[in-house]
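[step 3/7] fold_predict: job queued, chain A
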Amino acid sequence: MAIHGGGVLLSVCATACAAVIGVRQARKEAREAREARESVWRAPTPGAGAGGGRAVFGAVALLALVPFLLVTLSHGYGAESRISAVPFREILDASAHADLDLSDVRAVNLVGNVLLLVPFAAAAAFLWSGRRRVLKTALAGAVFSLIVEVAQYVLSLGRVSSVDDVLLNTAGAALGAFLVRRWTGRTRARRLTLPRPSRAGGRT
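[step 4/7] structure written:
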């Protein structure tokens, strides 16, 4: 698929708003958990606010898909739709050019296809817990990207429906989920180091 500079800018702006919402919600839940742990009058409630938090992150994930759809389902420059079913062909072809820079449309395609699903994945990763959240998010991104590539060809948008686009989108989804896992892991580690209230009402 062809990624246009204006579409990438729109995606960055819209998904930045979605990311701010998600980060604010995550910090709010972390603060509530910390206050519950530090309080001498109440015990921490596991999963407090989890339902509301998941609803927020689900909405953020859907919001992050809007610019992705606007970019990928707009009409391309080609006269007719084509299929590129050979894995890594377009990626290797673009990477083989020594003069490749951000002004080259191939570089924009490579980088853009990775970044477009990062905000969606970062929000969607909060909907799952456990060590497999990266795998689940990457699979969700792959399925969604595949549906979009098929839609591009069926709707005759003048784009190239490429397996490389699916691979790049999946890599972006995995990257977004991985960043969330690293961030939540550090946040959890900081929580474990906080002083806990003792039974007598003091801090241990």
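[step 5/7] annotate
Residues 101 and 107 are 6 Å apart (CA to CA).
The longest strand covers residues 82-84.
exit 0
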